[in-house]
Specification:
Bound molecules: zinc ion
Oligomer: single chain
Structural class: mainly alpha
Number of helices: 15
Strand content: 5-15%
Shape: globular
Radius of gyration: 21 Å
CATH class of the largest domain: Alpha Beta
CATH topology of the largest domain: Rossmann fold
Largest sheet: 3 strands, parallel
Order of helices and strands: HHEHEHEHHEHHEHHHHHEEHH
Distance between the termini: 9 Å
Number of strands: 7
Helix content: 40-55%
Strand order of the largest sheet: 1-2-3
């Protein structure tokens, strides 16, 4: 049985989620604490840190901004430009870039920034997608590694110490740049933030013919290189009250394009638009933990008072965890072709990662699926 937070709609199975004695989750509690934050003070702190890293004579960039082309990264670039910084924007190309994702990357360039894009070898990437999917149930594993390693490698290569990330998943912490001394990143810190699900890059050589030379983009610089440049980072979400919808509105007013309708399995049309594999990624979260992207979004909006808990529950029941037959309009069979997997093979991988205790089964214990292959959770509320 799933136990849900009494305030939002997140189940207890979400990694690192705790429900307290009142049945309220730590994400809701930490949102509650936001009311007490002095954002004016935090904004001044941000200005002080950026001032410290601003290149004195303009001969190098002031910071690295990792950008996907999404609403948050568009917003980050807009903010950095407003604050008078000269960022170098760095993209780690997604696994299966959509047309709308490409359009939004081009839009970021047009905001008036220097920009580099690292596109890792697609043959190696496809092998890593398959290994991630079959071994840890996460097709996006190489992408999650690359979005952390590639900007850090760029910081070393271009000799730009400050990396400006967007939201901090931990929600409490401004990042090492805020410390006045010893604020350089090291590999251990990076690996902790990367979240590799127990599959390490060093486990890969030897699998499917992968060798060390295939993995350059997925490897952090050495501690010596990081220290030489003094690479450090901050999370804008610590200094500016972070809200996806508000970021989307600002991004849109700066040329960002949303999808024509709600994204499959989601509640909204303004995020996760750049990778056709994201539908599979989100679906596996549903199979393992019983919640998908619609739940994530419902929780964000409930906490901000834009959706009632009941409204969230209704939307989640309708939209969450739909079998990913298409994503951003691309059919599943085409998405899988790149990984040399058939839909049938994919379905058996799905079944092997499904947490059978949270879904309805028949008398023989087999998972019950409707005509579209969709599962039903045993309970959608407490
Ligand atoms: Zn909650």
């Amino acid at each position: 049985m799933l136990v849900y937070c009494c305030r939002c709609v997140m189940p207890h199975t979400k990694p690192d989620l705790h429900l307290d004695e009142e049945g309220i989750c730590n994400a809701c509690r930490s949102y509650e604490k936001r009311a007490a934050v002095d954002w004016v003070q935090r904004g001044k702190e941000l200005e002080r840190i950026l001032e410290r890293y601003r290149h004195p004579n303009g001969e190098n960039w002031d910071c690295i901004v990792p950008v996907s082309g999404g609403k948050d990264s568009t917003y980050q670039v807009v903010r950095m430009l407003q604050m008078g910084l000269n960022p170098l924007c760095v993209t780690s190309t997604t696994c299966d870039l959509s047309a709308i994702g490409r359009q939004n990357i081009e839009n970021i360039k047009r905001l008036g920034v220097d920009y580099v894009e690292m596109s890792p070898n697609p043959r190696v990437r496809a092998k890593l997608n398959r290994i991630g999917l079959t071994e840890v149930g996460d097709i996006s594993w190489p992408e999650h590694v690359g979005i952390f390693t590639i900007p850090v490698r760029a910081a070393v290569q271009f000799n730009v110490p400050l990396i400006v990330w967007g939201e901090n998943s931990q929600n409490e912490y401004g990042g090492p740049a805020a410390a006045s001394e010893n604020n350089a990143l090291n590999r251990r810190w990076l690996e902790e933030f990367g979240g590799l699900l127990g599959l390490r890059v060093s486990d890969l050589p030897g699998q499917e013919g992968i060798t060390t030379r295939d993995l350059i983009n997925y490897t952090y610089p050495s501690d010596e290189e990081l220290a030489r440049v003094g690479v450090t980072g901050l999370f804008l979400g610590h200094y500016i009250p972070w809200d996806g919808l508000s970021n989307a509105l600002i991004a849109t007013s700066n040329g960002f394009t949303s999808f024509s309708c709600a994204v499959e399995g989601s509640l909204v049309n303004y995020e996760n638009l750049d990778n056709h594999q994201t539908g599979i990624h989100d679906y596996f979260k549903f199979l393992k933990f019983g919640f998908g992207r619609a739940t994530d979004l419902a929780c964000l909006h409930i906490r901000r008072g834009r959706l009632t808990r009941q409204g969230g529950l209704d939307a989640v029941r309708r939209l969450d965890g739909q079998f990913p037959w298409t994503y951003l309009g691309k059919p599943l069979a085409e998405i899988l072709a790149r990984l040399e997997l058939s839909v049938d093979e994919f379905i058996s991988i799905c079944d092997s990662f499904t947490n059978r205790r949270i879904f309805e089964r028949n008398a023989d214990g087999c998972l019950l699926k409707d005509a579209h292959g969709n599962l039903t959770k045993i309970n959608y509320d407490n």
